[in-house]
Amino acid sequence: MEKVHMYLIDPEASILLKEIAELMILVGHAPNICRDYGETRHHMLMQFLSLLSVQIEQKSYNNPAATTTNGACSMQLYEKNQKMWIQALKVFVSTVLPEERNSCAQIFGCDRKVEEDCFARATTRCTGQLLAVGSMMTNVKVYDQQHHKVPLLLQMHEELIKLQRSINVLLSGDAKGVISEQASMLLDKLGEEASSLLMEFLNVCSNPKPCQNIVLDGDILPLTRHVMGFVEQLTECSDTVNLILLPILEEEEEGAEITKSPWECYVRILLARLQLKFEENAESYKDERLRYIFLMNNAMHVLKGLGSSDLSMSMGNDNHQQLVVRVEQYGTAYLRASWTGALSHLSDHAVSDYDVLFRPGFLCHWMRKGIKNFNSAFGEITRVQTTWKVPDPQLRQHLRLIILQQVLTAYRTYLERYGCYLGNNESEYVKYTPDEIENDVLDLFEG
Protein backbone atom coordinates (compact mmCIF):
# COMPACT_ATOMS: atom_id res chain seq x y z
CA MET A 1 0.00 0.00 0.00
CA GLU A 2 1.39 3.41 -0.98
CA LYS A 3 2.33 5.47 2.07
CA VAL A 4 0.18 8.55 2.54
CA HIS A 5 1.89 11.43 4.33
CA MET A 6 -0.36 13.60 6.45
CA TYR A 7 -0.26 15.58 9.66
CA LEU A 8 -2.65 14.38 12.35
CA ILE A 9 -1.74 17.45 14.38
CA ASP A 10 -0.95 20.79 12.75
CA PRO A 11 2.85 21.40 12.90
CA GLU A 12 2.39 24.89 14.35
CA ALA A 13 0.03 23.53 16.99
CA SER A 14 2.61 20.86 17.83
CA ILE A 15 5.14 23.56 18.74
CA LEU A 16 2.68 25.19 21.13
CA LEU A 17 1.64 21.85 22.62
CA LYS A 18 5.27 20.95 23.14
CA GLU A 19 5.84 24.10 25.22
CA ILE A 20 2.70 23.43 27.28
CA ALA A 21 3.66 19.78 27.81
CA GLU A 22 7.15 20.67 29.01
CA LEU A 23 5.73 23.08 31.59
CA MET A 24 3.10 20.60 32.84
CA ILE A 25 5.65 17.80 33.12
CA LEU A 26 7.99 20.16 34.95
CA VAL A 27 5.35 20.97 37.59
CA GLY A 28 4.40 17.31 38.09
CA HIS A 29 1.23 16.98 36.00
CA ALA A 30 2.56 14.20 33.75
CA PRO A 31 -0.16 11.66 34.79
CA ASN A 32 -2.92 14.17 34.01
CA ILE A 33 -1.50 15.13 30.64
CA CYS A 34 -1.09 11.45 29.67
CA ARG A 35 -4.69 10.70 30.64
CA ASP A 36 -6.19 13.74 28.90
CA TYR A 37 -4.05 13.49 25.79
CA GLY A 38 -4.72 9.78 25.41
CA GLU A 39 -8.50 10.18 25.76
CA THR A 40 -8.67 13.15 23.41
CA ARG A 41 -6.47 11.60 20.75
CA HIS A 42 -8.34 8.29 20.91
CA HIS A 43 -11.59 10.02 19.96
CA MET A 44 -9.82 12.13 17.34
CA LEU A 45 -8.31 9.05 15.70
CA MET A 46 -11.71 7.38 15.58
CA GLN A 47 -13.16 10.46 13.89
CA PHE A 48 -10.23 10.57 11.49
CA LEU A 49 -10.92 7.02 10.36
CA SER A 50 -14.58 7.91 9.90
CA LEU A 51 -13.60 10.79 7.60
CA LEU A 52 -11.75 8.23 5.47
CA SER A 53 -14.98 6.15 5.31
CA VAL A 54 -13.32 3.53 7.49
CA GLN A 55 -15.68 2.32 10.20
CA ILE A 56 -14.28 0.14 12.96
CA GLU A 57 -17.21 0.28 15.33
CA GLN A 58 -18.53 -3.24 15.79
CA LYS A 59 -22.09 -2.16 15.11
CA SER A 60 -21.13 -1.31 11.51
CA TYR A 61 -20.29 -4.98 10.97
CA ASN A 62 -23.59 -6.31 12.24
CA ASN A 63 -26.45 -4.65 10.42
CA PRO A 64 -29.64 -6.13 11.90
CA ALA A 65 -31.57 -5.32 8.75
CA ALA A 66 -29.31 -7.61 6.76
CA THR A 67 -29.37 -10.57 9.13
CA THR A 68 -31.71 -13.51 9.44
CA THR A 69 -33.57 -14.59 12.54
CA ASN A 70 -30.69 -16.86 13.56
CA GLY A 71 -28.19 -14.00 13.43
CA ALA A 72 -26.59 -14.92 10.10
CA CYS A 73 -25.79 -12.27 7.50
CA SER A 74 -25.62 -12.31 3.74
CA MET A 75 -22.37 -13.17 2.00
CA GLN A 76 -22.48 -9.79 0.29
CA LEU A 77 -22.58 -7.98 3.63
CA TYR A 78 -19.86 -10.20 5.07
CA GLU A 79 -17.56 -9.53 2.11
CA LYS A 80 -18.21 -5.79 2.36
CA ASN A 81 -17.32 -5.80 6.06
CA GLN A 82 -14.21 -7.87 5.41
CA LYS A 83 -12.95 -5.34 2.87
CA MET A 84 -13.69 -2.50 5.28
CA TRP A 85 -11.76 -4.26 8.02
CA ILE A 86 -8.69 -4.83 5.84
CA GLN A 87 -8.81 -1.22 4.66
CA ALA A 88 -9.08 0.01 8.24
CA LEU A 89 -6.15 -2.13 9.35
CA LYS A 90 -3.93 -0.96 6.47
CA VAL A 91 -4.73 2.72 6.99
CA PHE A 92 -4.33 2.53 10.74
CA VAL A 93 -1.05 0.60 10.82
CA SER A 94 0.61 2.10 7.75
CA THR A 95 -0.43 5.73 8.21
CA VAL A 96 -2.15 6.59 11.47
CA LEU A 97 0.16 4.83 13.93
CA PRO A 98 3.42 6.19 12.42
CA GLU A 99 2.04 9.73 12.27
CA GLU A 100 0.74 9.56 15.82
CA ARG A 101 4.13 8.23 16.91
CA ASN A 102 5.81 11.24 15.26
CA SER A 103 3.37 13.64 16.91
CA CYS A 104 4.04 12.18 20.37
CA ALA A 105 7.79 12.40 19.77
CA GLN A 106 7.52 16.06 18.78
CA ILE A 107 5.30 17.07 21.69
CA PHE A 108 6.62 14.88 24.52
CA GLY A 109 10.20 14.33 23.38
CA CYS A 110 11.49 15.84 26.61
CA ASP A 111 10.29 12.80 28.59
CA ARG A 112 10.54 9.35 26.98
CA LYS A 113 8.22 7.73 29.52
CA VAL A 114 5.48 10.31 28.97
CA GLU A 115 5.90 10.01 25.21
CA GLU A 116 5.39 6.24 25.31
CA ASP A 117 2.47 6.51 27.73
CA CYS A 118 0.65 9.11 25.62
CA PHE A 119 1.17 7.13 22.43
CA ALA A 120 -0.06 3.93 24.04
CA ARG A 121 -3.16 5.59 25.52
CA ALA A 122 -3.99 7.25 22.19
CA THR A 123 -3.62 4.19 19.97
CA THR A 124 -3.94 0.97 21.97
CA ARG A 125 -7.73 0.96 22.23
CA CYS A 126 -8.20 1.76 18.52
CA THR A 127 -5.82 -1.03 17.58
CA GLY A 128 -7.52 -3.39 20.00
CA GLN A 129 -10.93 -2.52 18.59
CA LEU A 130 -9.77 -3.27 15.07
CA LEU A 131 -8.50 -6.67 16.15
CA ALA A 132 -11.67 -7.31 18.15
CA VAL A 133 -13.78 -6.63 15.07
CA GLY A 134 -11.64 -9.12 13.13
CA SER A 135 -12.18 -11.67 15.87
CA MET A 136 -15.91 -11.04 15.82
CA MET A 137 -16.02 -11.58 12.06
CA THR A 138 -14.66 -15.11 12.40
CA ASN A 139 -17.76 -15.98 14.43
CA VAL A 140 -20.31 -14.41 12.09
CA LYS A 141 -22.42 -16.97 10.25
CA VAL A 142 -23.51 -16.45 6.68
CA TYR A 143 -26.75 -17.90 5.41
CA ASP A 144 -25.02 -18.94 2.23
CA GLN A 145 -22.74 -21.96 2.52
CA GLN A 146 -20.22 -21.30 5.28
CA HIS A 147 -17.14 -22.30 3.29
CA HIS A 148 -17.57 -19.18 1.14
CA LYS A 149 -15.99 -17.37 4.09
CA VAL A 150 -12.69 -19.24 3.70
CA PRO A 151 -11.01 -17.03 1.03
CA LEU A 152 -12.02 -13.93 3.00
CA LEU A 153 -10.65 -15.33 6.26
CA LEU A 154 -7.40 -16.23 4.50
CA GLN A 155 -7.08 -12.70 3.12
CA MET A 156 -7.56 -11.29 6.62
CA HIS A 157 -4.91 -13.71 7.90
CA GLU A 158 -2.45 -12.66 5.18
CA GLU A 159 -2.94 -8.94 5.75
CA LEU A 160 -2.57 -9.24 9.51
CA ILE A 161 0.68 -11.19 9.15
CA LYS A 162 2.04 -8.51 6.80
CA LEU A 163 1.20 -5.72 9.26
CA GLN A 164 2.02 -7.53 12.51
CA ARG A 165 5.71 -6.66 12.34
CA SER A 166 4.92 -2.95 11.88
CA ILE A 167 2.60 -3.07 14.89
CA ASN A 168 5.32 -4.64 17.03
CA VAL A 169 7.87 -2.03 15.92
CA LEU A 170 5.60 0.94 16.63
CA LEU A 171 4.30 -0.20 20.02
CA SER A 172 6.34 -0.79 23.14
CA GLY A 173 6.00 -1.79 26.76
CA ASP A 174 2.76 -3.22 28.12
CA ALA A 175 0.78 -1.96 25.12
CA LYS A 176 3.00 -3.95 22.78
CA GLY A 177 2.51 -7.09 24.84
CA VAL A 178 -1.28 -6.70 24.95
CA ILE A 179 -1.69 -5.94 21.23
CA SER A 180 0.83 -8.60 20.16
CA GLU A 181 -1.03 -11.21 22.15
CA GLN A 182 -4.36 -10.06 20.73
CA ALA A 183 -2.99 -10.15 17.17
CA SER A 184 -1.55 -13.64 17.69
CA MET A 185 -4.85 -14.86 19.10
CA LEU A 186 -6.68 -13.42 16.10
CA LEU A 187 -4.28 -15.13 13.69
CA ASP A 188 -4.86 -18.43 15.48
CA LYS A 189 -8.61 -17.91 15.42
CA LEU A 190 -8.66 -17.03 11.72
CA GLY A 191 -6.53 -20.08 10.94
CA GLU A 192 -8.66 -22.42 13.05
CA GLU A 193 -11.92 -21.17 11.55
CA ALA A 194 -10.58 -21.39 7.99
CA SER A 195 -9.12 -24.87 8.48
CA SER A 196 -12.35 -26.06 10.12
CA LEU A 197 -14.40 -24.82 7.17
CA LEU A 198 -11.94 -26.43 4.74
CA MET A 199 -12.42 -29.76 6.48
CA GLU A 200 -16.19 -29.30 6.41
CA PHE A 201 -16.03 -28.63 2.69
CA LEU A 202 -14.44 -32.04 2.15
CA ASN A 203 -17.61 -33.52 3.63
CA VAL A 204 -19.67 -31.77 0.94
CA CYS A 205 -18.06 -34.08 -1.61
CA SER A 206 -18.35 -37.07 0.72
CA ASN A 207 -22.10 -36.77 1.21
CA PRO A 208 -23.49 -40.22 0.32
CA LYS A 209 -26.70 -38.71 -1.06
CA PRO A 210 -26.70 -38.16 -4.84
CA CYS A 211 -27.05 -34.58 -5.99
CA GLN A 212 -30.72 -33.71 -6.27
CA ASN A 213 -30.46 -31.65 -9.44
CA ILE A 214 -29.30 -34.18 -12.03
CA VAL A 215 -28.43 -32.48 -15.31
CA LEU A 216 -30.57 -34.08 -18.01
CA ASP A 217 -28.33 -33.12 -20.93
CA GLY A 218 -25.07 -34.50 -19.52
CA ASP A 219 -23.74 -31.06 -18.67
CA ILE A 220 -21.26 -30.41 -15.85
CA LEU A 221 -22.55 -31.21 -12.37
CA PRO A 222 -23.15 -28.00 -10.36
CA LEU A 223 -21.04 -29.48 -7.56
CA THR A 224 -18.08 -29.85 -9.96
CA ARG A 225 -18.32 -26.19 -10.97
CA HIS A 226 -18.64 -25.22 -7.32
CA VAL A 227 -15.62 -27.22 -6.18
CA MET A 228 -13.35 -26.02 -8.99
CA GLY A 229 -14.41 -22.41 -8.43
CA PHE A 230 -13.57 -22.83 -4.75
CA VAL A 231 -10.17 -24.35 -5.59
CA GLU A 232 -9.39 -21.51 -7.98
CA GLN A 233 -10.19 -18.95 -5.28
CA LEU A 234 -7.99 -20.69 -2.74
CA THR A 235 -5.05 -21.01 -5.13
CA GLU A 236 -4.34 -17.31 -4.63
CA CYS A 237 -3.97 -17.96 -0.89
CA SER A 238 -2.13 -21.29 -1.13
CA ASP A 239 0.77 -20.13 1.07
CA THR A 240 -1.63 -19.29 3.88
CA VAL A 241 -3.50 -22.57 3.37
CA ASN A 242 -0.17 -24.40 3.75
CA LEU A 243 0.44 -22.51 6.98
CA ILE A 244 -2.91 -23.26 8.61
CA LEU A 245 -3.21 -26.88 7.41
CA LEU A 246 0.35 -27.91 8.28
CA PRO A 247 -0.46 -28.74 11.95
CA ILE A 248 -3.37 -30.92 10.84
CA LEU A 249 -1.23 -32.74 8.27
CA GLU A 250 1.60 -33.29 10.76
CA GLU A 251 -0.86 -34.73 13.26
CA GLU A 252 -2.32 -37.13 10.69
CA GLU A 253 1.08 -38.24 9.40
CA GLU A 254 2.31 -38.88 12.97
CA GLY A 255 5.96 -38.03 12.41
CA ALA A 256 6.23 -39.47 8.89
CA GLU A 257 8.10 -37.45 6.29
CA ILE A 258 5.80 -35.04 4.46
CA THR A 259 6.64 -34.99 0.75
CA LYS A 260 3.75 -32.84 -0.49
CA SER A 261 2.51 -29.47 0.67
CA PRO A 262 -0.65 -29.39 2.81
CA TRP A 263 -2.41 -27.46 0.05
CA GLU A 264 -1.54 -30.09 -2.56
CA CYS A 265 -2.64 -32.90 -0.24
CA TYR A 266 -5.92 -31.13 0.43
CA VAL A 267 -6.67 -30.61 -3.27
CA ARG A 268 -5.83 -34.22 -4.10
CA ILE A 269 -8.24 -35.47 -1.44
CA LEU A 270 -10.90 -33.00 -2.56
CA LEU A 271 -10.63 -33.98 -6.23
CA ALA A 272 -10.61 -37.69 -5.41
CA ARG A 273 -13.87 -37.28 -3.50
CA LEU A 274 -15.31 -35.16 -6.29
CA GLN A 275 -14.43 -37.89 -8.80
CA LEU A 276 -16.29 -40.47 -6.72
CA LYS A 277 -19.22 -38.09 -6.40
CA PHE A 278 -19.80 -37.53 -10.09
CA GLU A 279 -19.19 -41.22 -10.80
CA GLU A 280 -22.00 -41.98 -8.34
CA ASN A 281 -24.25 -39.44 -10.05
CA ALA A 282 -23.41 -40.92 -13.45
CA GLU A 283 -25.23 -44.08 -12.40
CA SER A 284 -28.47 -42.08 -12.49
CA TYR A 285 -28.29 -42.04 -16.30
CA LYS A 286 -29.99 -45.05 -17.85
CA ASP A 287 -28.54 -44.23 -21.27
CA GLU A 288 -24.96 -45.49 -21.22
CA ARG A 289 -23.96 -43.03 -23.95
CA LEU A 290 -25.16 -40.02 -21.97
CA ARG A 291 -23.43 -41.38 -18.88
CA TYR A 292 -20.05 -41.18 -20.61
CA ILE A 293 -20.78 -37.69 -21.93
CA PHE A 294 -21.54 -36.61 -18.36
CA LEU A 295 -18.35 -38.19 -16.99
CA MET A 296 -16.26 -36.71 -19.79
CA ASN A 297 -17.68 -33.21 -19.24
CA ASN A 298 -16.95 -33.29 -15.52
CA ALA A 299 -13.45 -34.70 -15.92
CA MET A 300 -12.70 -32.08 -18.57
CA HIS A 301 -13.91 -29.28 -16.30
CA VAL A 302 -11.55 -30.47 -13.56
CA LEU A 303 -8.68 -30.70 -16.06
CA LYS A 304 -9.30 -27.21 -17.42
CA GLY A 305 -9.71 -25.80 -13.92
CA LEU A 306 -6.35 -27.12 -12.78
CA GLY A 307 -4.64 -26.12 -16.00
CA SER A 308 -5.80 -22.51 -15.74
CA SER A 309 -4.34 -21.98 -12.26
CA ASP A 310 -0.93 -22.05 -10.61
CA LEU A 311 -2.04 -25.28 -8.99
CA SER A 312 -1.04 -27.30 -12.07
CA MET A 313 2.63 -26.62 -11.28
CA SER A 314 2.42 -27.99 -7.75
CA MET A 315 0.18 -30.92 -8.69
CA GLY A 316 2.80 -32.25 -11.09
CA ASN A 317 2.72 -33.57 -14.63
CA ASP A 318 1.70 -37.10 -13.59
CA ASN A 319 -1.55 -35.89 -12.08
CA HIS A 320 -2.27 -33.76 -15.14
CA GLN A 321 -1.60 -36.72 -17.42
CA GLN A 322 -3.94 -38.92 -15.41
CA LEU A 323 -6.75 -36.42 -15.95
CA VAL A 324 -6.01 -36.26 -19.68
CA VAL A 325 -6.14 -40.06 -19.91
CA ARG A 326 -9.40 -40.13 -17.96
CA VAL A 327 -11.06 -37.67 -20.37
CA GLU A 328 -9.83 -39.72 -23.33
CA GLN A 329 -11.12 -42.94 -21.78
CA TYR A 330 -14.58 -41.47 -21.26
CA GLY A 331 -14.57 -40.14 -24.82
CA THR A 332 -13.56 -43.52 -26.24
CA ALA A 333 -16.22 -45.26 -24.17
CA TYR A 334 -18.84 -42.84 -25.51
CA LEU A 335 -17.79 -43.44 -29.12
CA ARG A 336 -17.92 -47.19 -28.62
CA ALA A 337 -21.32 -47.14 -26.92
CA SER A 338 -22.85 -44.63 -29.31
CA TRP A 339 -21.47 -45.34 -32.78
CA THR A 340 -20.26 -48.95 -32.92
CA GLY A 341 -23.78 -50.24 -33.57
CA ALA A 342 -24.49 -47.71 -36.32
CA LEU A 343 -21.16 -48.32 -38.05
CA SER A 344 -21.64 -52.08 -37.91
CA HIS A 345 -24.40 -51.69 -40.51
CA LEU A 346 -21.82 -50.28 -42.91
CA SER A 347 -19.37 -53.15 -42.42
CA ASP A 348 -18.97 -55.92 -44.98
CA HIS A 349 -17.32 -58.37 -42.61
CA ALA A 350 -20.36 -60.63 -42.86
CA VAL A 351 -20.10 -60.81 -46.67
CA SER A 352 -18.08 -63.75 -47.94
CA ASP A 353 -16.79 -64.60 -51.41
CA TYR A 354 -19.30 -67.45 -51.51
CA ASP A 355 -22.20 -65.00 -51.01
CA VAL A 356 -20.94 -62.82 -53.85
CA LEU A 357 -20.35 -65.68 -56.30
CA PHE A 358 -23.10 -68.17 -55.60
CA ARG A 359 -26.00 -66.24 -54.05
CA PRO A 360 -27.55 -64.01 -56.70
CA GLY A 361 -29.26 -60.94 -55.25
CA PHE A 362 -27.58 -61.35 -51.87
CA LEU A 363 -25.55 -58.12 -52.11
CA CYS A 364 -28.58 -56.13 -53.20
CA HIS A 365 -30.63 -57.42 -50.28
CA TRP A 366 -27.73 -56.98 -47.83
CA MET A 367 -27.03 -53.46 -49.08
CA ARG A 368 -30.63 -52.33 -48.75
CA LYS A 369 -30.97 -53.79 -45.29
CA GLY A 370 -27.67 -52.27 -44.13
CA ILE A 371 -28.42 -48.77 -45.37
CA LYS A 372 -31.91 -48.83 -43.83
CA ASN A 373 -30.53 -49.91 -40.47
CA PHE A 374 -27.84 -47.23 -40.63
CA ASN A 375 -30.41 -44.56 -41.50
CA SER A 376 -32.49 -45.56 -38.50
CA ALA A 377 -29.52 -45.67 -36.10
CA PHE A 378 -28.03 -42.41 -37.35
CA GLY A 379 -31.38 -40.64 -37.17
CA GLU A 380 -31.92 -41.76 -33.57
CA ILE A 381 -28.42 -40.70 -32.53
CA THR A 382 -28.61 -37.22 -34.04
CA ARG A 383 -32.17 -36.64 -32.85
CA VAL A 384 -31.32 -37.49 -29.25
CA GLN A 385 -27.75 -36.24 -28.98
CA THR A 386 -28.41 -32.83 -30.48
CA THR A 387 -30.03 -32.02 -27.12
CA TRP A 388 -27.01 -33.25 -25.16
CA LYS A 389 -24.39 -30.75 -24.11
CA VAL A 390 -20.61 -30.62 -24.22
CA PRO A 391 -19.91 -27.11 -22.87
CA ASP A 392 -16.17 -26.99 -23.55
CA PRO A 393 -15.86 -25.74 -27.17
CA GLN A 394 -12.54 -27.47 -27.85
CA LEU A 395 -13.74 -30.81 -26.53
CA ARG A 396 -17.03 -30.47 -28.40
CA GLN A 397 -15.28 -29.78 -31.70
CA HIS A 398 -12.73 -32.54 -31.11
CA LEU A 399 -15.50 -35.05 -30.47
CA ARG A 400 -17.37 -34.01 -33.61
CA LEU A 401 -14.25 -34.35 -35.76
CA ILE A 402 -13.57 -37.87 -34.47
CA ILE A 403 -17.17 -38.86 -35.19
CA LEU A 404 -16.98 -37.38 -38.68
CA GLN A 405 -13.70 -39.12 -39.36
CA GLN A 406 -15.18 -42.49 -38.45
CA VAL A 407 -18.71 -42.12 -39.83
CA LEU A 408 -18.04 -40.21 -43.04
CA THR A 409 -15.17 -42.47 -44.04
CA ALA A 410 -17.24 -45.61 -43.49
CA TYR A 411 -20.34 -44.11 -45.16
CA ARG A 412 -18.55 -42.91 -48.29
CA THR A 413 -16.68 -46.19 -48.67
CA TYR A 414 -19.93 -48.10 -48.29
CA LEU A 415 -21.73 -46.06 -50.97
CA GLU A 416 -18.80 -46.14 -53.37
CA ARG A 417 -18.35 -49.88 -53.04
CA TYR A 418 -21.94 -51.10 -52.93
CA GLY A 419 -24.11 -48.20 -54.12
CA CYS A 420 -24.32 -49.71 -57.57
CA TYR A 421 -26.35 -52.62 -56.20
CA LEU A 422 -29.23 -50.29 -55.42
CA GLY A 423 -29.84 -49.68 -59.10
CA ASN A 424 -32.40 -47.02 -59.93
CA ASN A 425 -33.81 -47.12 -56.40
CA GLU A 426 -30.85 -45.40 -54.74
CA SER A 427 -32.86 -42.33 -53.64
CA GLU A 428 -35.35 -44.64 -51.92
CA TYR A 429 -32.69 -46.13 -49.66
CA VAL A 430 -29.97 -43.49 -49.32
CA LYS A 431 -31.57 -41.04 -46.90
CA TYR A 432 -28.46 -38.95 -46.19
CA THR A 433 -25.84 -37.47 -48.46
CA PRO A 434 -22.30 -37.17 -47.06
CA ASP A 435 -22.84 -33.41 -46.66
CA GLU A 436 -26.01 -34.02 -44.66
CA ILE A 437 -24.16 -36.49 -42.45
CA GLU A 438 -21.52 -33.85 -41.78
CA ASN A 439 -24.06 -31.12 -41.02
CA ASP A 440 -25.99 -33.32 -38.61
CA VAL A 441 -22.85 -34.35 -36.75
CA LEU A 442 -21.74 -30.72 -36.46
CA ASP A 443 -25.06 -29.96 -34.72
CA LEU A 444 -24.40 -32.47 -31.94
CA PHE A 445 -23.83 -31.50 -28.29
CA GLU A 446 -25.18 -27.96 -28.46
CA GLY A 447 -27.74 -28.65 -25.73
Automatic annotation (TrEMBL):
Keyword match Transport: yes
Q: Does the keyword Protein transport apply?
A: yes
- Residues forming the Exocyst complex subunit Exo70 C-terminal domain are 83-439
* Annotated Gene3D superfamilies: Exocyst complex component Exo70 (1.20.1280.170)
Query: What GO biological process terms are annotated to this protein in UniProt?
Result: exocytosis; protein transport
A Pfam family of this chain: Exo70_C
Cellular component (GO) terms are: exocyst
**Molecular function (Gene Ontology), one example:** phosphatidylinositol-4,5-bisphosphate binding
Q: Which UniProt keywords apply?
A: Exocytosis, Protein transport, Transport
What family does the database annotate?
A: Belongs to the EXO70 family.
Described by its record, this protein's role is as follows:
Component of the exocyst complex.
What name does the UniProt record give this protein?
A: Exocyst subunit Exo70 family protein
Q: Give the source species.
A: Aegilops tauschii subsp. strangulata (Goatgrass)
List the lineage, top down.
Eukaryota, Viridiplantae, Streptophyta, Embryophyta, Tracheophyta
